User: What shape does this take?
Amino acid sequence: MYTLEENLKVEGFLTEAKKIILNECSSFLNNDNLEGHRTFLHRLSKRRVRDPRLKIFTTNYDLCFERAASLQGLIILDGFSFVNPRRYDPNYFNCDIVRRTNSHDKTTNFLEGVFQLFKLHGSVNWERNGSEIIEIDEPNPKKACIIYPAHGKYQQSYIQPHLELFSRYLSSLREPNTCLIISGFGFNDDHLAEPVISAIDTNPHLKVVIADQFAEKQLEADKPSKYWEKLKEKALAGEDIWFINASFQKFAQLIPNLKALTSAQQLERTIKDISS
Assistant: This one.
């Protein structure tokens, strides 16, 4: 049993550790570090407006996608209100943005450059304020709405807003004619990796593209991690899974103009060209 003094020491240590994580995930942001994010968003978010909106699911806490979108005039639907203080409400994910030439025009055209962003493990600018989640520049480390790297992070994904975000992640994997791009994910989180394997087995229309700078090494390893081994087995069995040995930034440069064909068709064509 801890004494009160020992508990205070532990609490102080945890608060300082959380503060360091928040700072480390915020201090590196500058335009030079965002080239890959800018290219990725430019080529995928500005596709045919009749296609479903691009959905980005990330476990990163940083604001790379937000900053890259701002630099290009793109619009993010991230589950937060459109006025300050921005408050989280999952109903905002059901909203979209259209263009009308005048107030009497009954026709609507979906605006280009709009995408949805789901930050599964929280963000450096989210803070819990009672029962609300609000967006704030510098949240208190004790109130920051983040699933920190810890043994119990799987259990934390079952509280809001993470539960709602995770639910939408699972739902998206089961949508028809879906192309899932995985980049920068080490398959170390079972609660995120297992649904991918399940979706490959149950969604016949799912196409999976895995871009990793160590993909070749992972696939050729004598004892690959369990998820890489499963993915390799399924690819060899004929599932629509493609591996690209490239970093996120290099992969972004390979993404083609997606306006002519559907996103899945154009990506499939490009990947086949790279492989041939």
